[in-house]
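Weekly sync, protein design subgroup
Attendees: M.S., D.O., the rotation student, P.L. (late)

Item 1: inverse folding check
M.S. brought a backbone from last month's batch and wanted to see whether the design step gives back something sensible before we order anything. D.O. pointed out we never logged the input encoding, so this time it goes straight into the notes. C-alpha cells as presented (410 positions):
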C-alpha cells in the first residue's frame, strides 16, 4: 500500500512538469544560496573574531582575579615573564606574551596627553598582536629596546613628534611612587582605529617594570589559539597549569570582548531576517503549486472519495508529493551549494577594494567560507520545513470536499 502511494505521488508530481520544476528550481536556488551565505557568514565571523582578537586582546588572558573589571596597578601576575616562559614550554607554543599596563601622562615639548602605556615582550608580542605589523614609520621594539617607545599615528600628530624624537611620561607605580621616564620614539603605528592610535603606547616590558616599580610582575599573559574552536580546550589546559595560584583567572575572548559577541548576534539577527524573506517566498511558491494541484484534481479526488477513499489518505498523498519536492530541492540545492562553498573555502572570496583595505589594516585579503554540517543543513532544513507547513492548507481543503459536488466540478 505504501509503495502504491509513493508511486501515485511521484506520478502526480510530474503531471505538470514545468510547474513542478519551477517550484523545485526555486528550492534549489534558495538552498544553494543559503548554504553559501550561511557558510560565508560563519567564515566571516571567524575572521572577524580572529582579526579583532589578534589586534590586541588575544583569545585568552591570564589576569589577577578582578583586574578585568577594575584594572588596578596592584592586581598583578607575579613573575609574569617566568610564568609566560613556563607556559610556552608546557604548551609548546610561542604564541604567548606577557604584558604590563599602566596609565601615564605622556608629553613632548609642546603638548601632553593622558593614555595607557603597555609593557610588552618585543620577541613574543608579534605572535599575539597585529600592531607590530602596522608600523608605518620607523621600526618595532626589539629585544635590546630600553628607553624606547612606539606610539600611534594620531598621538604622534597630536604631540607633534616623529621617529627619533623623545617623549617623557609620568604616572603612578605599583607602590604608589612616581613612575617617570624619558623614551625615544622608534616607531609609529597606524591601526585604522583613531581611539587606539591616540590612546596607547608600547615600551619593552623590562623598561616598564623598572619605571613602574613592578618588581618582575605584570598584569596579563596573552595567549593566541590556532583556531577559535580550540579556545575552550586551551583555556582548560591553562587553568590546570596555573591551578596552584588561586588569585589568577583564565579569561576567554567572550569575557574579554563581550561587545564582539553582541555584534555577531546582532549581525546574525539582521541576516536571518533576509533569509526569512527568501524562505517565505519559497513556501508561498510551494503553497501555490500544491493548491493549484488540488484544485485541478477536485473532480478526480471527488471520484476517489466516492469509491471509499478517506480524505486523510488523500491529504497524506498531497503531503507525500510535497516531501518529494522538498527532498529534491534539498538534495540538489545542498549539493550545488556544497560544491560552490567548498571551492571558495580553498581559493577564498573577495570583493573589489577588499585587498587594499586588508593591506592597510594588516588583515587577510580574502574571506573563506566555513563548511560544517550546520551551515549545510540549517538553511535548507528550514526551507523544507516551511514547504511542508505551506502544504498543510491545500491538504486540509480535502477534508471539506464533498464527493458529489467535487465530481460535478468543471
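Designed sequence read out in the meeting:
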Amino acid at each position: 500500500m505504501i509503495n502504491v502511494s509513493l508511486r501515485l505521488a511521484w506520478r502526480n508530481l510530474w503531471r505538470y512538469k514545468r510547474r513542478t520544476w519551477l517550484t523545485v528550481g526555486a528550492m534549489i536556488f534558495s538552498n544553494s544560496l543559503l548554504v553559501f551565505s550561511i557558510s560565508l557568514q560563519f567564515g566571516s565571523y571567524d575572521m572577524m573574531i580572529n582579526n579583532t582578537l589578534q589586534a590586541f586582546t588575544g583569545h585568552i588572558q591570564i589576569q589577577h582575579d578582578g583586574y578585568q573589571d577594575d584594572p588596578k596597578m596592584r592586581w598583578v601576575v607575579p613573575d609574569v615573564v617566568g610564568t609566560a616562559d613556563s607556559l610556552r614550554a608546557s604548551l609548546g607554543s610561542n604564541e604567548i606574551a606577557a604584558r604590563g599596563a599602566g596609565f601615564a601622562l605622556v608629553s613632548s615639548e609642546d603638548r601632553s596627553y593622558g593614555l595607557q602605556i603597555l609593557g610588552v615582550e618585543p620577541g613574543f608580542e608579534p605572535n599575539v598582536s597585529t600592531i607590530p605589523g602596522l608600523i608605518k614609520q620607523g621600526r618595532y621594539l626589539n629585544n635590546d629596546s630600553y628607553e624606547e617607545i612606539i606610539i600611534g599615528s594620531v598621538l604622534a600628530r597630536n604631540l607633534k613628534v616623529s621617529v627619533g624624537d623623545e617623549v617623557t611620561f609620568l604616572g603612578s607605580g605599583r607602590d604608589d611612587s612616581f613612575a617617570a621616564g624619558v623614551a625615544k620614539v622608534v616607531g609609529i603605528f597606524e591601526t585604522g582605529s583613531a581611539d587606539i592610535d591616540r590612546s596607547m603606547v608600547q615600551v619593552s616590558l623590562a623598561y616598564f617594570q623598572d619605571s613602574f616599580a613592578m618588581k618582575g610582575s605584570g598584569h596579563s599573559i596573552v595567549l593566541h589559539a590556532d583556531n577559535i574552536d580550540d579556545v575552550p580546550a586551551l583555556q582548560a589546559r591553562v587553568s590546570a597549569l596555573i591551578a596552584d595560584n588561586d588569585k589568577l583567572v583564565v579569561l576567554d575572548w567572550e569575557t574579554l570582548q563581550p561587545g564582539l559577541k553582541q555584534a555577531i548576534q546582532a549581525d546574525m539577527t539582521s541576516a536571518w531576517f533576509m533569509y526569512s524573506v527568501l524562505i517565505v517566498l519559497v513556501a508561498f511558491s510551494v503553497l501555490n503549486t500544491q493548491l493549484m494541484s488540488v484544485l485541478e484534481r477536485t473532480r478526480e479526488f471527488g471520484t476517489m472519495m466516492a469509491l471509499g477513499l478517506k480524505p486523510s489518505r488523500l491529504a497524506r498523498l498531497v503531503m507525500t508529493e510535497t516531501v518529494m519536492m522538498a527532498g529534491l530541492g534539498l538534495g540538489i540545492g545542498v549539493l550545488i551549494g556544497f560544491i560552490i562553498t567548498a571551492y571558495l573555502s580553498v581559493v577564498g572570496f573577495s570583493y573589489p577594494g577588499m585587498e587594499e583595505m586588508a593591506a592597510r589594516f594588516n588583515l587577510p585579503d580574502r574571506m573563506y567560507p566555513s563548511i560544517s554540517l550546520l551551515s549545510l543543513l540549517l538553511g535548507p532544513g528550514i526551507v523544507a520545513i516551511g514547504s511542508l507547513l505551506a502544504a498543510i492548507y491545500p491538504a486540509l481543503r480535502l477534508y471539506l470536499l464533498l464527493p458529489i459536488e467535487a465530481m460535478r466540478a468543471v
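Discussion: The longest helix spans residues 17-57. The chain has 15 helices and ten strands.
Action: P.L. to compare against the previous round before Friday.
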